[in-house]
Amino acid sequence: MFRDVSSDYFMRPIQILIIDLGSQYTLVIGRMLRELGYRSAIFSPRKAESWLKNNRPKAIILSGGSASVYEDGSPRPPKNILKASTPILGICYGMQWLAHVQNGSVVPHQENKEYGKTIAGFDTKEKLFSGIKKQSVVWASHGDSVEKVPKGYKIIARSKDTNTVAAMANPEKRIWGVQFHPEVTHSEEGKEILLNFLGKISGCQKDWKPADIINEIRNKTAGAAKGKKAIIGFSGGVDSTTLSAVLSAVFQKNLLAVSIDTGALRRNELEEIAGNAKSAGVNLKIVKAAGRFQKVIGKNTHSELKRKRFKKLYGRILEEEAKRFKADFIIQGSLATDLIESGSAGKADLIKSHHNVGLNLKIKELHPFRNLFKYEVRELARQLRLPDSISGRQPFPGPGLFIRVIGEPPKKEKLEIVRWADGEVTDILKKYKLYDDISQLIVALDCHRTVGIKGDGRVYAYSVIVRAVKTMDFMTAHGVQFPAHIRKEISSVVTRHPRIVRVFFDETDKPPATTEME
User: Fold this and answer.
1) What is the model's pLDDT at position 23?
2) Among residues 35, 114, 183, 376, which one is catalytic?
């Protein structure tokens, strides 16, 4: 049976075990460790317990999570890890579990709830905080707090804003806990803290290189793919293009890239898709399906309903094309972020459905990039010497402009409006050389009408929302604030459209907002 080649890249022993306790950031921990040069395995508590029977990691990290440790049914790591003498680092919920299970006290502190950036003061004499600043910004997201640390533990950091316990340690038991998220880029000293834990405390050796993924995926695919055929869902984005370039060397003519023209693509996007397929060395078929998508989405305005209806038809079309090509597999460029936000990673809560995750197709699916984040795929694209226009290409959601029409059904005429607005804003940002400095541009059409003036007449028309973010992993992001003269020019150009009277700029960070409006 053909395995999902993403399930394990390497045969060498895993040094670091991450136990997933339901955090949206669990795979971000794995991403950060890879950035630092370390491999890791991520398992649920039950799978971790089974895995530990035959494996002895050098370090264990307990993720955060959205539950409260004192509630019934909350995630529970295997308690035997406390007696294994393996260094443990508990993050957020992970630290609270360590306190709770060892007779410390964890309580809800609504008045001291921390969400976002906060300042922590550190005891830099402790190994975990060796070489870092005594006070710096950390990223926090919790309503519960450790009120009393367990016997034998000491407090090694406190929040400057709320004076709550920000970190605790029991060096004799080789257990540490931090209330904040060092894996998130907003934590200024997060990388150094993790390096201290992995290197100075746990003695882990660096064992990960980006180019290894290409070789491992190709090697694991080669034997099973012999004489087999596959199609790949091809959007022309960095994920599907890079994956096509990786696998085209294995499948050769037996791999077909299938791109679906949903009617919700951006200006000139079909031409760009064709060029990227050529760069990846893969044959391309474009399926015209705008009418089918318009029909299936219909009058729906709810974002999740639009996504689910899009997803269902997307899967159906891929199955049709796989049958025509007599394919044995359907390949998707799904990333870790897609699985997290669709609720398919560990016990993470559903944020939004993703069109290429959980399709439940009759034909076997492969997701070789499922453990990777966007910045890692960009590095693979560079390793493959793909053009900068591909490795640096901004992401675009599968449902496209369907989810950038807000408040009314995304009919063809509204798609035309938002497509035009997106093209105009993109051109302005490129003119000022700002487009390549942002991670993603979102231009949405708000169909809630407001009053305006066109010529000498009073009109009720639409608004356009312009949003740009900067991010490394798309799990957290900074909202971008454009200079005043650029905002002015965007407003002036976009409101020339007879159906647009206002332009709003959304500069909200993620979280609390998501990248897309819907």
Assistant:
1) 84
2) 183
Angle between helices 374-383 and 238-251 (to 10 degrees): 50
Q: What amino acid is encoded at 446 in this protein?
A: D
Q: What is the pLDDT of residue 207?
A: 82
Q: Among residues 181, 354, 355, 367, which one is catalytic?
A: 181
Task: Report the topology of domain 411-506.
Answer: GMP Synthetase; Chain A, domain 3 (3.30.300)
* Residue 92 known to be catalytic: yes
Q: Using an 8 Å Cβ cutoff, are 406 and 364 in contact? A: no
Q: Summarize pLDDT for 231-261 with one digit per residue, the tens.
A: 999 999 999 999 999 999 999 999 999 999 9
Contact predicate 28/139, CB 8 Å: no
The pTM for the full model equals 0.68
Q: Provide the residue type at 205 as one letter.
A: Q
SS3 of 144-201: the string is: EEEEECCCCCEEEEEECCCCCEEEEEECCCCEEEECCCCCCCCCCCHHHHHHHHHHHH
Residue 109 catalytic? no
CATH of 16-201, one of 3.40.710.10, 3.40.50.880, 3.90.660.10, 2.120.10.80: 3.40.50.880
Residue 1, pLDDT score: 31
Question: Domain map of the chain by residue range?
Answer: 16-201, 210-391, 411-506
Given 35, 92, 114, 189, which residue is catalytic? 92
Task: Check if 210-391 and 411-506 are the same fold.
Answer: no
Question: Between 1.50.10.10, 3.40.50.620, 1.20.1250.20, 3.30.450.40, what CATH number should domain 210-391 receive?
Answer: 3.40.50.620
Residue 518 appears among annotated catalytic residues: no
